[in-house]
UniProtKB/TrEMBL annotation:
<keyword id="KW-0479">Metal-binding</keyword>
<feature type="binding site">
    <location>
        <position position="202"/>
    </location>
    <ligand>
        <name>Zn(2+)</name>
    </ligand>
</feature>
<comment type="function">
    <text>Catalyzes the ATP-dependent conversion of 7-carboxy-7-deazaguanine (CDG) to 7-cyano-7-deazaguanine (preQ(0)).</text>
</comment>
<keyword id="KW-0067">ATP-binding</keyword>
<keyword id="KW-0862">Zinc</keyword>
<dbReference type="Pfam" id="PF06508">
    <property type="entry name" value="QueC"/>
</dbReference>
<dbReference type="GO" id="GO:0016874">
    <property type="term" value="F:ligase activity"/>
</dbReference>
<keyword id="KW-0547">Nucleotide-binding</keyword>
<keyword id="KW-0436">Ligase</keyword>
<feature type="binding site">
    <location>
        <position position="199"/>
    </location>
    <ligand>
        <name>Zn(2+)</name>
    </ligand>
</feature>
<feature type="binding site">
    <location>
        <position position="188"/>
    </location>
    <ligand>
        <name>Zn(2+)</name>
    </ligand>
</feature>
<comment type="similarity">
    <text>Belongs to the QueC family.</text>
</comment>
<dbReference type="InterPro" id="IPR018317">
    <property type="entry name" value="QueC"/>
</dbReference>
<dbReference type="InterPro" id="IPR014729">
    <property type="entry name" value="Rossmann-like_a/b/a_fold"/>
</dbReference>
<feature type="binding site">
    <location>
        <position position="196"/>
    </location>
    <ligand>
        <name>Zn(2+)</name>
    </ligand>
</feature>
<protein>
    <recommendedName>
        <fullName>7-cyano-7-deazaguanine synthase</fullName>
        <ecNumber>6.3.4.20</ecNumber>
    </recommendedName>
</protein>
<feature type="binding site">
    <location>
        <begin position="8"/>
        <end position="18"/>
    </location>
    <ligand>
        <name>ATP</name>
    </ligand>
</feature>
Length: 239
């Protein structure tokens, strides 16, 4: 990998990947997507990350897709509220955006081919497998095979997904060793002035720093809810 395009949402995972690729001297640019999500904080944070890394940041506008994806709690104007609780609970399936990674990766591979980059990086990880089918190893391998066919005899682009066997705590540990400034990242689905501390990504984020034994620099509205959410999940109770 000499020149990589990295998908960046501005969250813990993708920012860690951006730092990892930059540390290897291979970061060409960060690519973020405006797909009609509830808020723009994640894109703003991705822009800040790009500035810190001295990298190009491209934002691809695919907001028109939001008209067809209103079943997801992450889409602005939809009928589904962002659920509270732990990621491992079934109610988090409301946050699935159908085919999101496949759509974004297809575009990113086109960008990479145009930029003569040899890799596209995505930060899917083991903690996402329960809820999101397009974060699982089978999807990653299938997408690699599809892109090999799509760009055959034109340009060779690798799908770089180094965290598929790593949980979020492991990502935090690696990112801490790389010096990732997690205080500038954004995870909360609700998009308020502060991280809510209650939605699936806030609970997962808080738990990851705890398990990694790394101080969490995040300002949460409800900093202790994650303990209750984990207890309810382990007891098989709804959020």
């Amino acid at each position: 990998m000499k020149k990589a395009v990295v998908l960046c949402s501005g969250g813990v995972d993708s920012v860690t990947l951006a730092w990892k690729v930059a540390a290897a001297g291979a970061l060409d640019r960060l690519v973020s997507f405006d797909y009609g999500q509830r808020h723009s904080k994640e894109i703003e944070r991705a822009a800040l990350v790009a500035e810190r890394l001295g990298a190009r940041h491209d934002v691809v506008n695919i907001r028109e897709l939001a008209r067809f994806l209103t079943s997801s709690a992450l889409i602005a104007g939809g009928d589904t509220a962002v659920p509270d609780g732990h990621y491992a609970q079934d109610n988090m399936k409301a946050t699935v955006v159908p085919n999101r990674n496949a759509i974004m990766l297809s575009i990113a591979f086109g960008i990479a081919a145009g930029a003569k980059a040899d890799a596209v990086g995505i930060a899917v990880h083991a903690g996402d497998h329960f809820i999101y089918p397009d974060c699982r190893p089978a999807f990653v391998e299938a997408f690699r095979a599809m892109q090999d066919c799509a760009l055959e005899d034109m340009w060779e682009v690798e799908l770089y997904a180094p965290f598929t066997g790593t949980d979020k705590a492991g990502i935090v540990r690696e990112g801490t060793s790389l010096g990732v400034p997690y205080e500038i990242t954004w995870s909360c689905y609700k998009g308020g002035e502060r991280h809510c501390g209650r939605c699936g990504t806030c609970v997962e984020r808080r738990e990851a720093f705890h398990l990694a034994n790394v101080p969490d620099p995040t300002d949460y509205e409800d900093p202790d809810y994650w303990i209750e959410a984990i207890a309810r999940m382990k007891a098989g109770k709804p959020a």
